[in-house]
Amino acid sequence: MAQRAGKRQSKGRRAAAEKLGMLEGPDTGKRRGKLPSDRAILFRIMRRFTRLLFRVAATFVIGSIALTLIYRFIDPPVTPLMLIRPLESLGDGRIVGINKKWISIDEVDPTLLKSLIAAEDARFFEHGGVDWKAVEAARKYNEKHKGKKVRGASTITMQCARNVFLWQGRNYLRKGLETWFTYLIEFLWGKERILEVYINMIEWGDGVYGVEAAAQKYFNTSADKLTPRQAALLVAVLPNPRRWNPAEPNAYINRRVSSIMKGARIVDLDRLEDKKDSQKEERGQSSDQRK
Length: 291
Prior knowledge:
This protein is mainly alpha-helical. It contains twelve helices and two strands; from the N terminus they run αααβαααααβαααα.
């Protein structure tokens, strides 16, 4: 019995070695080499697996950079969330389509942009994508208030990266990918493009995406004609746009609106132009240095 088991083990090792190219196959007409050890076979498997991982990682890095560069100049046609929501609705026995209309950031009432920054990311112009001060503050708050509602530290850039490239949910894989795309779009897009893509792709209700579709649906107007209160109402529901209706605000939303309108008054959108000018100067200086 022991002899048979030894022969089976030897055949298994030989087959594995032939599959990995460590021995000549039975039909090559060449003499078989010495049977490799289990350790040598394992080493070859691990080396092949490492090569595969490297190829997958390299493909992802190159592909994500290329896609981000494309979206710098071409407006994203669809997002993963836009494809997921109709499938979810079918499971609930409903039909939800995709209502969106892309507009330039120059066609949006500035009050909407100010309200968005005031409510979602007050340090939008200071951080490089991830607001580490807010992250640390959220961590301390959550440790102190365990068992209560978790406070997040998501910036507009992080939300834009999640909305355009990824899916909703909380896990380490998605968080890691979100961080990668966050720094990528900060570097390749800049603040103005991030804002423009964000306001056009964000979910504003069942099947409603972007500020223009939201303005038309809830207030029967266009994004460039929103009143300060309407702009604040649209922003106030963003934490849960499928639950709250900006056209029918409850007491909580009305309180948020008052706070957002106050914060919007001190947001300086001229900093968008300052960012563009500084980026142009940096590119010009680097070009002169190359010359």
